[in-house]
């Protein structure tokens, strides 16, 4: 379920007689034996001990099934016979978990504190701390979870057999206007401008850094037009003298402010928060 977005046994809340049958019983049995008596895919550089989950994770993420494409163009017959992809003939695209979305925004902007271990953090520190989401406390009382994570269906500490996945307008607002998004956009823009001061180079660098791919010709043209219009707008209307969000100061230059806007647009792109 963690790697494919769906479990081998649909009723994760009930493994008893009232639960559903596993979709791949032989695979489930094989994985259970492999967990207790590891033997598959081992080498001198890769050794595993019994009951070591890391070995199972390695087997899954290096399998052909895990590395299949989510595109269906080459297999229309499979799409007709198994539209729900219950036999994993292709990869199912899904959104990143809430914690990973937050950590990814901090990482891509160069702000993530990857220090291992340390004291548990209170959720009220989400705007000031750059630690990984793993280190923030979660408790059932009010205010017991970071607000940004609740937008993206963070698990309920009292009842979480399986994460849900919703699509609501507030998520786009959080990726655009939250303190986390604004600060990430400003920090990343500053870093990109220092290495790629020219407009076309900046656009390419922004795409490759945020979306891990270069822009298409249509996207490059649209981004260049956006930067030009935004710069003109800021020059005509003026910019606020003080930053509107804490921590990372907003640029007082119209050209840079326009680039900050473009970076936030790309951070809000579905490719940034989706596992293809």
Description:
With 276 residues, this protein is mainly alpha-helical. The protein folds into two domains: 68 residues, no CATH class; 184 residues, no CATH class. Helices cover 42% and strands 1% of the residues. It has ten helices and two strands; from the N terminus they run αααβαααααααβ. The chain has a two-stranded antiparallel sheet. Helix 4 packs parallel to helix 7, helix 7 packs across helix 10 and helix 9 crosses helix 10. The radius of gyration is 22 Å and the shape is globular.
List keywords for this structure.
276 residues, mainly alpha, 2 domains, two-stranded antiparallel ribbon, 10 helices, 42% helix
Straight-line distance between termini? 16 Å
- Name the shape in a single word: globular
Helix content: 40-55%
The tally of structural domains comes to 2
- Strand order in the largest sheet: 1-2
Residue stretches low in confidence (pLDDT < 50, at least 5 long) are none
Radius of gyration: 22 Å
Query: What does the main sheet amount to?
Result: 2 strands, antiparallel
Number of strands: 2
How many DSSP H or I helices?
Answer: 10
Strand content: under 5%
- List the secondary-structure elements in sequence, H or E: HHHEHHHHHHHE
Mean pLDDT: 87
SS class: mainly alpha
What's this model, at a glance?
By secondary structure, the chain is an all-alpha fold. It is built from ten helices and two strands. Helix 4 runs parallel beside helix 7 (179-195), helix 6 (169-177) crosses helix 7 (179-195) and helix 7 (179-195) packs across helix 10 (254-267).
